[in-house]
Amino acid sequence: MDWTQKNVLVTGGASFIGSHLVDALVARGATVRVVDDLSSGIRDNIAGHLENGTIEFIEADLLDPGVAEASMKGIQVVFHLAANHGGRGYIDLHQAACATNLALDGLVIRAAHAAGVEQFTFASSGCVYPTSMQHDPSEVLYLTEDMVKPPYEADDMYGWAKLMTELTLKAYHKDYGFNCSSARYFTAYGERCLINHAVVAMIARAFIRQDPFIVWGTGEQIRNWTYVSDIVEGTILAAERIKDGSAVNLGTMERTRVIDAASEIIERSGVELRLQPDPSKPTGPYNRVSDNALAKELMGWEPKVSFSEGLDRTIKWFHENHDRDEVAADFERSLTER
Ligand SMILES: NC(=O)c1ccc[n+]([C@@H]2O[C@H](COP(=O)([O-])OP(=O)(O)OC[C@H]3O[C@@H](n4cnc5c(N)ncnc54)[C@H](O)[C@@H]3O)[C@@H](O)[C@H]2O)c1
After folding, report:
1. Could you tell me if 214 and 205 are in contact, meaning their C-beta atoms sit under 8 angstroms apart?
2. What is the dihedral of CA 100, 189, 92, 291, to 10 degrees?
3. If I label 251, which of 94, 124, 129, 304 is the partner at 20 to 30 A Cα–Cα?
């Protein structure tokens, strides 16, 4: 796709992933508009573009009357990332707030279709996969896209809303020929990620020298943390290559236990702390790792950044951009809020 000819809307473009997506689209020469209410997004994430005048920014709530419609004016490609979302502590403890995504996504899709948008790509999630198949960390399981099927069984209200939006897009393609795709992100991390997500929460614990260092759950949970630049590249490819409403996983196939990630982070942070699992805390499923063969087949996408390399970059960024006393003062609240 020749991005220099495209007017692109990124909803939630001031977020962690959204702002990296904006950087990548601007680098490709696209004309970018961001709409974000800054409920969890941060103006600083897009400050460079605002100062240079390289993007247009609408600070508004897409749930307010007329905002979605106004945001679509003149737009050809939409990346829909705006969501009421946080890390595991947030989505477990704020079900009603996450349910607003049902309305938000419905409004945004309807407005995009009405405005004649050429391509719509949605930030979906590994939370659409049936939770009952993700209980046993000793099973070597890779989630393939076809496992999301009736009877559906998504992860919390947040996952159900993502699933309903995927199904809505499929219906819009079938009934109206709407060109669209969903990219299922698996536990993204990297620079600008908030403390309410596991990797950055663990980096923050080591940073403030929390001793004992609390690990949510038994620590046996397995994840495939996926670095933000890989997520962004896959999202852009999903817009370029997928038109029929299909959903594709964006995740590495590296299986990492939370307890091992915690040990790595402590060591790389140059501190010595005792690990203390706390199974009473929100954990999500114990075995969540994507298969990424379909992304390779449909779009030639493969993750380029290993967990080891991404972890080093994220620790470095965190240390350079945070103040120890400030992180410590607000730490417990920031784990479950947005
Ligand atoms: N971070 C992950 O690991 C992950 C995994 C799967 C999916 N996702 C999805 O990726 C997207 C980006 O997530 P993220 O982690 O970068 O940050 P995030 O969840 O903070 O991003 C959401 C953005 O949308 C904005 N927003 C929320 N409600 C809005 C509204 N009503 N009107 C306008 N703007 C609104 C927020 O201010 C924020 O900038 C989200 O859709 C999220 O569900 C993220």
Report:
1. yes
2. 90
3. 94
Whole-number mean pLDDT of the chain? 97
pLDDT tens digits along 38-79: 999 999 999 999 999 999 999 999 999 999 999 999 999 999
Residue 268: CB atoms within 10 Å = 16
Q: How far apart are CA 13 and CA 42, in angstroms?
A: 9
Q: Is 187 in the pocket of ligand 1 (CB under 6 A)?
A: yes
Cα 322 to Cα 320: distance, rounded to the nearest angstrom: 6
* Residue 13 Cα to ligand 1 middle (Å): 8
> What's the whole-model pTM score?
0.98
Triad 247, 15, 314: Cα angle to 5°: 95
Phi, psi at 143, each rounded to 5°:
-75, 120
Is 32:10 a contact under the CB 8 Å cutoff? yes
Ligand 1 midpoint to CA 186 (Å): 13
**Complete domains list, the chain, with CATH:** 3-188+228-250 (3.40.50.720), 189-223+254-287+305-336 (3.90.25.10)
What six digits make up the tokens of 99? 């349910």
CB contact set of 285 (below 8 Å; sequence gap of 6+): 131, 134, 135, 155, 221
In a 3-state reduction of DSSP, which class is residue 108? helix
Which pairing describes strands 222-223 and 213-216: parallel, antiparallel, or unpaired?
unpaired
Closest CA to 18 of 54, 2, 42: 42
The response to whether residue 273 sits with its C-beta less than 6 Å from ligand 1 reads no
pLDDT of residue 183: 98
CA distance 302 to 304: 6
| Ligand 1 mean position, distance from CA 1 (Å) | 25
Residue-wise pLDDT tens digits, 163-197:
999 999 999 999 999 999 999 999 999 999 999 99
What pLDDT score does 244 carry?
Answer: 98
